[in-house]
Amino acid sequence: MDLFQGTLEVLLVIIKVLIGVVLAVVAVNIGLVFFEKITQMGKMGELNILKELEQGNAAVAILMIGVILAIAIVIRSGIASLVEIPSFNIDYAWNVAWGFSQMLLSVVLAIISIYLALWILKRFMEGKDIIGDIKDGNIAMGIVIAGIVISIALIIEISVAGITPPVS
Predict the structure, then answer these.
(1) 28: domain range?
(2) 46 within a domain of the structure (yes/no)
(3) Does residue 66 or residue 17 have the better pLDDT?
(4) Least CB-packed of 39, 84, 139, 152 within 10 Å?
(5) Do 141 and 62 meet the contact criterion of CB atoms below 8 Å apart?
């Protein structure tokens, strides 16, 4: 391996890492915005995440950690498939586009699944206002819901990994 080829490989790795970071940041931001909107639409109880965090609501912070981890878990395979592509070629742009669309689908699936889990949990808890409790600072509820959200993400990740294009 000569110096030029070694330099190109290092540059390729840096580019792949940057692509992965950008996609991850975009996915988490989309997920958080979508999570906030879907909780407001679905009569789960209005939750202004930024306002609650600014007020120091630890229960909301714990729930958001769970949501962020859940999104990261679900999109992990899509981003991994992008950064594992051995070299740039004609198919690279297609793989990046496919990976980005898979990432968006993964975020949507993660948020919908989180919402469904909260909805089902609310039904089991006989109408208990889960989001209201978290909004009121119930840390125990925030921890339990974050745990449920992360557990669901671990299961969903297996399904989402099945739609990842093979690395060529």
Answers:
(1) 3-161
(2) yes
(3) 66
(4) 84
(5) no
pLDDT for the residue 55: 94
Write down the residue that tokens 């699936």 correspond to. 109
**Pair of tokens at residue 14:** 């840096």
DSSP letters of 102-142?
HHHHHHHHHHHHHHHHHHHHHHHTTT--HHHHHHTT-HHHH
pTM for this structure? 0.75
In a domain, 69, yes or no: yes
Domain assignment of residue 114, yes or no: yes
Structure tokens at 58: 């630890």
Contact (CB, 8 A) for 149 and 73: no
Note the pLDDT tens digit of each residue in 30-79.
Answer: 777 877 776 665 555 677 788 888 999 999 999 889 988 888 888 787 67
In whole angstroms, what is the distance from residue 118 CA to residue 140 CA? 15
Domain-located, residue 41: yes
Structure token pair of residue 123: 């039904």
